[in-house]
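Deviation from plan, reported transparently: zinc ion complex.
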Amino acid sequence: MIRINKNVEPQILQTNATNWRAELLQHLKDNGGIYSKIPESIKNRYQHPEIKSSLVEESYGKCSYCESKLKHISWGEIEHILPKALSPENSFVWNNLLLACSVCNNAKRSYFSPTEPLINPVTSDPAAEIVFIGHLIWHSLNSATGQLTIGQIDLNRTELIQRRQERLEALSALIDKWASLQDKPRLQSLVWNQLVQEADPSKEYSAAVKAFIQGRCGQSI
Ligand SMILES: [Zn+2]
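Because the crystal trials were delayed, the predicted structure below was used instead.
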């Protein structure tokens, strides 16, 4: 999980979000406040391709929670940070939308608590709440938000642990090479640049990779 730097709000939302919100709230009122009774064509307007493609771009095609690459498996889902059924007025608010994989999206479901929130990667840096030790994610000391997020979204589920482990093991040879070049600083610098590239936010599981490289090499990226 890494910070998401939001793209500029897509034009389709800039033009329509106010009207879409008003129509949705009117339908909600007409249906006695029951969200499930609102027509799909009214409440699912956030699924517009222009919105989806911008979410894919800003998250590098990765789930905003687990950092798994999505585009080669599926297009992913649009996640509402404040759940749309509980906070329908935020259905079309750009900063409330994220790209997520179906597993994380389902795990989060409609979790919402003003007093015990999950990490919001749009408004805060997850690195303040969670730490990576190898392929495992831990919450930072005293971070209830980190602990809740890891538990609710199940960020240490078996398949994620396996995939992160594979990613870190694949990097080990490059780190060993870097370590063997202590007396060849120019060559070592080239290998270091390769390692830094592997921790780029566009890469899968970049937060775990960054922590792993920094821990083994003893220097910051
Ligand atoms: Zn995910």
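The pocket of zinc ion is lined by residues 63, 65-66, 68, 100-101, 103-104 (CB under 6 Å). We consider this an acceptable substitute for the interim report.
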